Amino acid sequence: MATTMPRDLQNAGSGPLGGRSTPFDEAIRTAARREGVDENLVKAVVEAESSFNPKAVSPAGAKGLMQLMDGTARALGVKDPFDPAANVRGGARYLREMMDRFGSVSLALAAYNAGPGAVEQYGGIPPYSETKAYVSKVMQLQRQNQMVAQGTREKGGHGGNPVG
User: Fold this and answer.
1) Residue 78: which domain range?
2) CATH of the domain at 70
3) What residues have CB less than 8 Å from 117, skipping those under 6 apart?
4) Is-contact 90 112, C-beta < 8 A?
5) Count of domains in the chain?
6) Mind listing the pLDDT tens digit for each residue in 92-148?
7) What is the pLDDT of residue 151?
8) Is 16 in contact with 146 (CB distance < 8 Å)?
9) Residue 164: inside a domain, yes or no?
10) What average pLDDT does the segment 31-42 reach?
């Protein structure tokens, strides 16, 4: 059955990866494409969650680049949450699941941060200041990454650096 995908999910996974270059760009690119999620969104989540620190552990116990909780990591098939590629694969998969479940990037991000139960309970982004700030921050980082990627593509894919 064909469905119309919400506008903010269209072209997911397309376009070059923007933002600052990191050692995790290939893992982000691969996982995002595999799950059909915008690469720049996955990179924005990684930046917001862990500041690109693969050994990050939150006070709540979330681990790795995309800050997966142990139960969530297990459910996603992530055996080692400190393995950057495995963590990003699991996080991108979870993001795709939340996008499919809630139908928009903003609600998927709210669910990623506060849990899907909170999004269902409130029928949208929960009224938690942390979650509201998180959704805003990730969406802003995604836009910045997309703008950098667009500028790189317009300059011949060389990031604006002269070739010669």
Assistant:
1) 23-154
2) 1.10.530.10
3) none
4) no
5) 1
6) 999 999 999 999 999 999 999 999 999 999 999 999 999 999 999 999 999 999 998
7) 80
8) no
9) no
10) 98
Q: Are 91 and 31 in contact (CB under 8 A)?
A: yes
Q: Tokens standing for 47?
A: 């930046």
Active site residue 49: yes
Q: What residues contact 122, with CB distance under 8 A and at least 6 apart?
A: none
Catalytic: which of 35, 49, 97, 130?
49
Q: DSSP label at 57?
A: B
pTM above 0.90, yes or no: no
Give the E-state strand segments of 14-142 in sequence order.
none
d(CA 142, CA 149): 10
Distance, CA of 69 to CA of 71 (rounded, Å): 6
- Do 18 and 148 form a contact (C-beta atoms < 8 A)? yes
Give, as one character, the DSSP assignment of residue 7: G
